[in-house]
Structures are given as C-alpha cells and as structure tokens.
Amino acid sequence: MVGKKDEDINEGVLKLINDIHYGDIKGTHNIVVATISVLKDIINNTEWTTAKYLMGVITRNGKYLVEAIPLEFSIGNMVRRILKIIREEYTSELKNKTDETDPQESLHKILTAEGDQQTDFNMSVPSLKSALIEHINEFEAELETCSENITAQASEHIHSNEIIMTIGKSKLVEEFFKEAATTRAFEVIVAEGGPSLNGQEMAVNLAKAKIKTTLISDVAIFAMMSRVNKVIIGTHTVMANGGLRAVSGSHTVAQAAKHYSVPVMVLLPLYKLSPLYLCSHEQDGFNKHVSPTQGVINCANAPLLERIHAYNPVFDYVPPELVTLFISNTGGNAPSYVYRLLSELYHLDDYEL
C-alpha cells in the first residue's frame, strides 16, 4: 500500500483505490472505465491553464494509482492513454490557433519540421478543455464497443467442425464462441483451470448455448492437444514484447500447442496492452498469489502449511514465441506487431510515469 497521502492527490483517485481494494469494482473492463471516469473528472474540475500543468497533475495522480494497485496494469495504460490524448489535442488546437493568427508562421513550422519533440506545452489554449473532454468521450464510447468488435471477428477465425481448446473462464472468450456458434458448428474442449476450476462454469455456459463442449482436467491438456485445431484464450495483460500474463495454466496449454503445432490465438482488448517489459524470470514480480487453501490444500490439512511452502499463483507468463495471433478490436496481429500498436496508443515519453 502507498505511504503518506500527497495533498495533491484527487479524492476520486483515493475512492477508486478503496473500491478496487475492497472488491466494489471488479474486472479489468470495469476498472478501466472507472479510471477513465476519474481522470476525466480531474481534467474537468481541476484549475489549470496550460497542458504542461495538466499533464503534471494527471501523471502525479496516475503514478499514485499505479503504486497503490501495481498488479492492474490497465490502470497505467489508461493514464498513458489520457496523456497521449492531451498531447494530440494540444498540438491540434495550437495548430488551428496558429493557422488562424499567422499562416506564415505555420508554414515556417512545416518547413522546419518542428514536431512534438519541440513542444513545451506551456502555451495557454482556451479551447483545449472542451476538445479534451470530447476526445475522451469518444474514447469511452470506443471502450464500450471493444468486446463487440472482437466477437464480431469470431466467424473469421472459427470454422465448421473444428475442435478448439480453451482454459478457465473468460467472459470475452465465451461471447466469442457464442457468436461463432450462430453460423457454424464446432466443438470446444475446456480445461478446468485449477485451482479455481472456473472452467467448469465456462463449460456449463457453453453447453447451455448448444455448443458441443467437453470439460477436461488440466492434467489431460497434453493428451487432448493432438486432436485440437486451435487454442483460443483470454488474457489479463499483454506486455510490450508480446508476452502475456494470463490465467494460471495458460503456459501449459501454449507449450502443448507448440509441441503439436497448434495455433494459439489470444483475445486482446487494446486497453490490456501495456508498454512495460517483463520476462519469464520476473514472474514473481508481477504475479498475484492467493491462499493455498483456495483449491491447493484442503482446509483439513492446514497444519501441513507450518512445515511446507505452498505457492498458489493466479497468473502464468506466456512468452511471445508461443502465441500465433492477437485478435484485438482493430483486427488480428502477430506478436511482432505489438510495438507498432504501442506507438499508436501511447507516447514514448509516458512509458515511464
């Protein structure tokens, strides 16, 4: 938890931290929507005159948020996204202002190739606030349709009579399968995803949607993979190198798929794409561990815990070489294309908050 509260930290930020810690806001999408709402509120209600001052306020509050909830990478992603929007709108509004007042100066800037690296964001632009709010409203609308844009691509990636494997429960993957099932028949093998075993719920939901579903234990993943045409999984975060942090067991599925040359597709809403780098040996630094009594050790055997070390990680790190394709709301991309997506979403100067 963060130490002494900075006087400059917005009340909305503190409330958001508490809501996430106490479980009042759950799920990456809900956290992202709440984060954007708080940042928009800061832009609306803070007194500021220059973009530079506003960026300082957003960065300070964003950094506080990230330090308080370090495992929700999407919060930092949204802070960086808002900073990119401020940069874009400032440059755009300033250009409009310059074009109106001095076309000669505007032409000079084009000829001397003065770009963003020359911008100091210190000029006062009265129209900036309304332009920012409009842009953020558009971004919020984009977030609302994010999942729909991914599920709309289902029929391009799932074909008739295919056998597809997934692991655990992902709302997005479930909707993806249901959308594909409206036009073709296929079979899904669901690995139950221990120790939480929420794959069982996933299998029930798919079966209710009249999709032919088989539930398997995680130990049967490798044995069943030879029959599978493709693997489709969700993810919690995708890192800058194309590696992903996904539900525990995903690495096993991806390795088995690699052995049998089965393509692995990952459904990726772009708000989950982080500009941070992590490798497999850093797993402990970005993982989340829960009590071993949650599915690993029976409560009746709890005295055992005094004599052994039991780890119950929530996530797996899946390296980029095990992923074939990311299906995002803008289309399908290979892991090697992630760097390009990052440059479109965030500004290089904001990678480190």
Descriptive terms for the model:
353 residues, alpha/beta, 7-stranded mixed beta sheet, 3-stranded antiparallel beta sheet, 10 strands
Describe the protein's architecture and organization.
α1 packs antiparallel against α2 and α4 (73-101) crosses α5. The protein is globular, with a radius of gyration of 23 Å. The strands form two sheets. It has a seven-stranded mixed beta sheet, sandwiched between helices. The chain has a three-stranded antiparallel beta sheet with strand order 5-6-8, with helices on one face. It has 353 residues and is an alpha/beta fold. It is built from 13 helices and ten strands.
The low-confidence parts are 110-117
Q: How many H/I helices?
A: 13
Report the order of strands and helices.
HHHHHHHEHEHEHEEEHEHEEEH
Q: Into which percentage range does the β-strand content fall?
A: 5-15%
Kindly state the percentage of residues in helix: 40-55%
Oligomer: single chain
**Nearest-integer average pLDDT:** 86
For the report, how would you describe the main beta sheet? 7 strands, mixed
Gross morphology = globular
Global Rg:
23 Å
Ends distance: 18 Å
- Helix/strand-derived category reads alpha/beta
Number of strands: 10
Q: How are the strands of the largest sheet arranged?
A: 3-2-1-4-7-9-10
